[in-house]
Amino acid sequence: MGKDSSDLFGALFDPPSTNRVVPVLVPLPVPEAYSYAVPETMAVEPGSVVQVPLGPRQVIGVVWDGEDDPRIDPKKLRPITQVFDCPPLTREMRNFVDWVASYTLSPPGLVARMAVRAPAALEPEPMVEALRYRGGEPDRITPARARVLDLVRDEIPFTRSGLSHAAGVSLSVIDGLVKQGLFESVFLPPPPVVAAPDPDYVAPRIEGPQKQAASEIIEAMQTGGFSASLIDGVTGSGKTEVYFEAIAEALRRGKQVLILLPEIALTASFLERFQDRFGAKPAEWHSDLAPRMREKVWRGVVTGEVRVVAGARSALFLPFEELGLIVVDEEHDPAYKQEDRVFYNARDMAVVRARIGSFPIVLVSATPSVESQVNGQSGRYHLVHLPTRFGEAAMPDLHLVDMRRHPPERGGFLSPVMLRAVKKTIEKGEQALLFLNRRGYAPLTLCRVCGHRFQCPQCSSWLVEHRFKEQIQCHQCGYSEKTPEACPECGTFDHLVACGPGVERIAEEVEKHFPEARTIVMSSDLLGGVKRLRLELEAIAKGEADIVIGTQLVAKGHNFPLMTLVGIVDADLGLANGDPRAAERTFQLLSQVTGRAGRTGLKSHGLLQTYQPQHPVMQAIVSGDASAFYEREIGEREKALLPPFGRLASIIVSADTRVDAETHARGLRAAAPKVSGISVLGPAEAPLALVRGRHRFRLLVHGRRNSDMQAYLRSMLAAGPKVRGTVHVQLDVDPQSFL
Ligand code: ADP
Ligand code: ZN
């Protein structure tokens, strides 16, 4: 044997005594992976989920791609503590994490953290203990015991609780039989998180234009590779039915499916509908899931056991084994934007994930975002249009109530026109919804004698009175105090006045006019949390309320068969702020709310109280001419080079003192590179100048569509002042909020 080959064998069979070095992403806001040594006995590869020491702690990290730096001596590095027993993140998933980090200018370790779970989730689920009949008879037979023995005689094992349930006997009956030695312990594999969905559980029931729409999407899927479709259709046109067929096709092809929904926690009816079509519920993913369930779902997703997940935006970072379709329902919804730590828009990042994974994505909305409309019109997205409601259901008849001509009585907020409509509706035994997107009793409370306003001690926002809870609350930071009996400024008793309405105040007005009616107030601060909200929504659907007063919580996806009147208390509410998307948002929200009415064929109405009946948004809604509205809105965006015709990024500088925040923001501004096509506005004090005791300044970077925003921001940060003391700089690429 020659020298060369013996060297080869040496290299193969005698691994070098020095350890390997690998990059590991740790959950820290640092720009790069850290290097760790790999103990000789450990096998890791890119994507492996590991535990590593970090200072005095042990944290979860992910082995990342990249060359080992030959200059690093592994002996000087700390070794990886352990590798978890779960499949490594796929290359696709790693590319996705890198892409999101680079696009949003976020630390990659913080993005990776969204894709992995706590250690318990990474260990295989323990086997479950069960009882198997080993023969013999009990000392004495009772009817309960007989029922148990009937079930177990063929030696199929049951868990203790499963057996008591199946036989309809108490646990003590089972325990009694166990004591007599009739059973032996066996171990069973853990039950699946959800049963497998069956694409052919029932026949598809799409028809007419729905059929055409579904086949267009399925065709795109059959061609293979990345494709993006936008299903644009009024509420009730059958969009869900159509994308269910796309899901069925993906399942037939052996792919996993992700359905993103805003407010998933409240869409129990969606899960049931899915079950009717596929014979099993999808796995849920949202922040209200019990920790143990989250772990199970996570594990089911990586191993491929879970085939379909319906989840909130964070589900986008689940490390699917073989994802083959993403559906983004209500794609225009602002809830897809995360504004915490990693600022990202899940709708946009979902498109990226589909492109990286080379599979189709379907965006769905009755009122698509201007961005998606433009992509649809330009042909980047495949546009699928469903113009009419399915079957008998007609769109509600929409009218404006000109509040200047039909003002409410003193101290009230509901026009006589609105009150008459509510009366007529409940007299027929139907339901009315009064919509106001404002929690609490009143947005502002002040003292009638000295004019004192109640302001949050930590934020620059007014405290909102919540009468049911007898509190005044900050909607910014959650601060609350008991509603004071006397003004803290001048000491006068009973002189506090509420300015403007919240849902609680509308409820009070409704009770005055309709004391007999059953009313429900629905808002996210309802005591009892998500569980209670789900129950209330079910009660409304069953007709157990006459009048519902609610915030945007009731706008989303629910089906209330008896709801025939939707009244918008303040249609102008969203138009007032300085947000470039104010008109679009108002249009979307109002369309969505009025779309709650008349989903089952009953004649239905929508009434919008407004002081600006000529406003294009109001006109677009009542005329039903959405395309004219979009055309105008798109034209204005194009003129102003606003997204999607230009690019925006926000820089929010905050600090414990105003001067620190402002100085740092000015320093950044001075460091802005001079390039054509990109300009910087500000710094200016943020509209929310103080949040949780931190002073905030904002810069807005505006670029042409083709400008390299990320490179620009990076060089600005690099050339800018060092981040010191309490200063924090937050980047928000493609901002949705300008507060
Ligand atoms: P969207 O998602 O556009 O709001 P849905 O898919 O929820 O519309 O459909 C509205 C209602 O019409 C639902 O109750 C749905 O079950 C029913 N529906 C839609 N298409 C069909 C169909 N082809 N056959 C039977 N029912 C349908
Ligand atoms: Zn506050």
Class of the largest domain in CATH?
Alpha Beta
Give the proportion of residues in helices.
25-40%
Binned strand content:
15-25%
Q: Structural class given helices, strands, pairing?
A: alpha/beta
Unreliable stretches:
1-17
Number of strands: 31
CATH topology of the largest domain: Rossmann fold
* Alpha-carbon Rg, integer: 30 Å
Report, as a whole number of angstroms, the end-to-end distance. 74 Å
| CATH homologous superfamily identity of the largest domain | P-loop containing nucleotide triphosphate hydrolases
Strand order of the largest sheet: 10-11-9-12-15-8-16
Instruction: State the CATH architecture of the largest domain.
Output: 3-Layer(aba) Sandwich
How many structural units, i.e. domains?
6
pLDDT averaged residue by residue: 90
Bound ligand species: adenosine-5'-diphosphate, zinc ion
Structure description:
- The chain has 739 residues and is α/β, with parallel strands linked by helices.
- The protein folds into six domains: 3-116, GIY-YIG endonuclease, CATH 3.40.1440; 128-188; 208-389, Rossmann fold, CATH 3.40.50; 393-438 and 505-635, 3-Layer(aba) Sandwich (Rossmann fold), CATH 3.40.50; 440-500, no CATH class; 646-733, Alpha-Beta Plaits (2-Layer Sandwich), CATH 3.30.70.
- β13 and β14 (342-345) form a beta hairpin.
- The relative contact order is 0.08.
- Mean pLDDT is 90; it is low at 1-17.
- The structure holds adenosine-5'-diphosphate and zinc ion.
- Zinc ion binds at residues 456, 458-459, 461, 474, 476-477, 479.
Topology (elements, then pairings):
Blueprint: H1 3-13, E1 20-25, E2 34-38, E3 49-54, E4 57-63, E5 82-83, H2 91-104, H3 108-113, H4 119-122, E6 128-133, H5 143-152, H6 160-167, H7 171-179, E7 183-188, H8 209-223, E8 227-233, H9 239-252, E9 256-260, H10 268-278, E10 283-285, H11 291-303, E11 308-311, E12 323-328, E13 337-340, E14 342-345, H12 346-357, E15 360-365, H13 370-377, E16 382-386, E17 397-402, H14 416-427, E18 431-435, E19 444-447, E20 464-466, E21 471-473, E22 480-482, E23 496-499, H15 503-513, E24 519-522, H16 529-541, E25 547-550, E26 563-568, H17 582-594, E27 605-610, H18 616-623, H19 626-639, E28 646-655, H20 658-670, E29 678-691, E30 694-704, H21 709-719, E31 728-733
Parallel strand pairs: 8-15, 8-16, 9-11, 9-12, 10-11, 12-15, 17-27, 18-25, 18-26, 24-25, 26-27
Antiparallel strand pairs: 1-2, 1-4, 3-4, 3-5, 6-7, 13-14, 19-23, 20-21, 21-22, 28-30, 28-31, 29-30
Helix pairs in contact: 2-12, 5-6, 6-7, 8-9, 17-18, 18-19
The structure holds adenosine-5'-diphosphate (ADP) and zinc ion.
Residues 205-207, 210, 233, 235-241, 390 line the site of adenosine-5'-diphosphate.
